[in-house]
Amino acid sequence: MNNLSSKIKEICKCFGFIKTGFSETKVLIEESAFLKEWLAFKKNADMNWINKSYEKRINPSFFGKEFVSVISLAYLYNTPYKQISETKISRYAWNAGDYHSIISKKLNNVCCEIEKLDAEIKTLYFIDDAPFMDKVWAKKSGIGWQGKNTIVINKKFGSFFFIGNILINKKLDYDKPVENLCGKCRKCIEACPTGALYDDYKLDANLCIAYHTIENQKIIPRNVNLNGWIFGCDICQEVCPYNKTEIFTDDENFFPDERIYGKSISELENITEKKFDSIFKNSPIKRLGYKAWLRNIKLNKILKK
């Protein structure tokens, strides 16, 4: 490994990233064909921003032709806490903090330290709110393989981790993609209660609980049983054998918030709009909005009857 590559990995480790890998920037030919077909069959539901950013997603040179390498990073958010209520919030969001701001700050710090290594170095970082195919690059950089639930899985750490990516204008020692270890296992597909995982490595957002409880601001179809979820859904990850790991984050930003963790559906329904704004002011749940929060809760109450 060249000196720059090893220094970058050490910097990433110092900021708490559990895994770092490198890959060469190039147009995503194979992935672009899959994405085009997925969009053509409207598997993205009404997430039309994916269509609008298609060209950027498949070609990282849109962000600058000087960028020749991708640095992919994983940050663990898995904790020993389990879902203990009939009303469930995805574990990445059951804390009071917003992972976007937390991970962005860490990525920014990493970039600042990398740029100190050489005055010619230029970087640009992304998390999952940018038109950058984060999971694809994480796979190419050897962070893990993309499971049948479409989520990146690492043999040691499972899949409860955030992905960040950094573009850099320097050649690095590129990592190789890791072996896909899903084998014949289809536990995630079999566990999906709505059939959103309609085939290996294929997701239909129109049937996805996470999509409907986060992105969908309209009426949720009655054929989509939320199964107690009011924000996100972890079912396809919870059943994954690789998430039996007992390696947990020590970052308290991702520990459950006692104001919402384990609360009954009635307790969550009784949260006023003022209290909602206070509790979730720095949370990804804030973008859901109070109206959709109540919609999700009330629909779960109806489906429970």
Structure description:
The chain folds into two domains: 3-81 and 93-168, no CATH class; 187-247 and 256-304, no CATH class. The chain contains twelve helices and ten strands. The protein has helices at 3-14, 29-40, 49-52, 54-58, 99-116, 134-140, 187-191, 209-214, 235-238, 265-269, 273-279, 290-304; strands at 19-24, 69-76, 88-89, 123-126, 145-146, 152-153, 161-168, 197-199, 202-203, 229-231. A hairpin with a 5-residue loop joins strand 5 (145-146) and strand 6. Helix 1 packs antiparallel against helix 5 (99-116). The termini are far apart. The relative contact order is 0.17.
Quick tags:
10 strands; alpha+beta; 305 residues; four-stranded antiparallel sheet; two-stranded parallel ribbon; single chain
Write the layout of secondary structure elements.
Blueprint (H helix, E strand, L loop, with lengths): L2 H12 L4 E6 L4 H12 L8 H4 L1 H5 L10 E8 L11 E2 L9 H18 L6 E4 L7 H7 L4 E2 L5 E2 L7 E8 L18 H5 L5 E3 L2 E2 L5 H6 L14 E3 L3 H4 L26 H5 L3 H7 L10 H15 L1
Parallel strand pairs: 3-10
Antiparallel strand pairs: 1-2, 2-7, 4-7, 5-6, 8-9
Helix pairs in contact: 1-5
Major sheet size, sense and barrel closure: 4 strands, antiparallel
Low-confidence parts lasting 5 or more residues at pLDDT below 50?
A: none
What amount of the residues lies in strands?
5-15%
Order of helices and strands: HEHHHEEHEHEEEHEEHEHHHH
Spatial sequence of strands, sheet with the most strands = 1-2-7-4
**Number of strand elements:** 10
